[in-house]
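Bench notes, afternoon.
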Amino acid sequence: MKLTDELIEYVENVVKTGLSINIENIIIEPGAVRAIDEDRTVVLYQNTDVPDMPFGSIGLSRTGSFSSRIDLVKNRENFIVDVETDDGNDGEFAIDVKMKSSDTKISYRCTDPDVIQAPKKINDTIIFQVQLNAEAVSMLQRGAAAMEANTVTITGGDDGVSFEFSDVTNDTFSHTFTSEVTRLENDTNTDFTHNYPVKTVLALFKQNPDGVFEIGIKGILCIAVNGLNVYVLPQV
């Protein structure tokens, strides 16, 4: 079963986005892309504008291997991708991807989507939206390095939105990078304070430094990367 160029590009984009946040196992199924990292700190979840695959679902593990293999052959003459399928409990799914050109053949064994653990929905409601900028992302990176911090606290209120760090001696750093918080629900105030793994947040913000990020009632942070929604779970 041959994939179109558009579907190949979509799968590559999903894999690339997952790899940027250390996600190794991804499900692409009718109407959704689902994945979570091993530390269960960041979720890739998209349920809009997901193209229909001709084979139903595909489970991608070892995504680094997938990426390096397709990079070897995709720019060679007469490049195509063929998918072998099987029937499972939830319908047809991909079991093998064959990447071919005129002079090269590479195979990649897929994983049964039922084996991959990933959230089936996002259990939060987005209520705040915040505009990023390149200077804010730079200060986030420099502040985390200066404070040797693993966690960033993002605080919002009437005075704006800030990144905050503290080190092992309780020295503190705070940088207010915008004076505005957009409320997406009219009956909410603008106050929030949530902690996140700084390496994950920084990796995402670097990919979309002039975009927006959103915060949910329970503190989940959402940002669109490469057209896909990525959610960072708040830390206690």
